[in-house]
Input
Amino acid sequence: MKLDFTRWLPAIATNPNRKTALSVAGVAALAGLAFGPTAVAAPITTGPHEGAVAAIDKATGRETTVDSAPTTDGTSDNPDTGKSQARTSGADKPSRKKLVPYGVQGAQSRIPLDNAQRTNAKTIIEVAKETGVGERGAVIGVATAMQESKLYNLGHLGAYNDHDSQGLFQQRPSSGWGTEKQITDPEYSSTAFFEALKNVRGWQDMPLTRAAQTVQVSAYPFHYAQWEDQAADVVSQLW
Output
């Protein structure tokens, strides 16, 4: 049985123009099946595969770390963020209350973001504005994409692909999310995610991981929660 560890490796990634951007051979990556809104989730089995984490670290020269605690003045002292500033500074920045209204759930993880990841995050945020899901929706979208693809626009991974899942949100053509060309277009895939989210009754009042899981129907429904804090920081920075 094929291991479903393809989700986190930027092995065959595509940029917003859907051209191949990265290539790392012979490694399978992390988990989380993303089906269409009406599909049935596979049973929860195991957590992220440590070999996949090591593969990503080797490919990107970075480490996945647990987020350090925020300081008393609302800043983060995590060196991976490359910053130590108030998350909600500036009149145009969304308030922390809007971004994370119920607080984060569980231990938080962080990854450093390169230009491609930040560009994809910016696209998700702009589409959140356009679709009317606002700041909170943007946090849910960014956190979901961080779990599904590490904010890389993944193309097909060949033998290691998780079914036919592709793109930022690992959406599947066979589950009705769109064509391969569409779901590897960051603007289209973000729009599809947010339109599905809007159909979830009461999503605004749900914990992030539940809202994301209702759309994604993942085999790993609780893994979205770990990215909420960094996703909020990203939305605050790029809003």
Q: What stands out?
A: Confidence is low (pLDDT under 50) at residues 1-12, 14-89. The chain has one domain: 13-238. Helices lie at 50-60, 96-99, 115-131, 134-149, 180-183, 186-198, 208-216, 228-238.
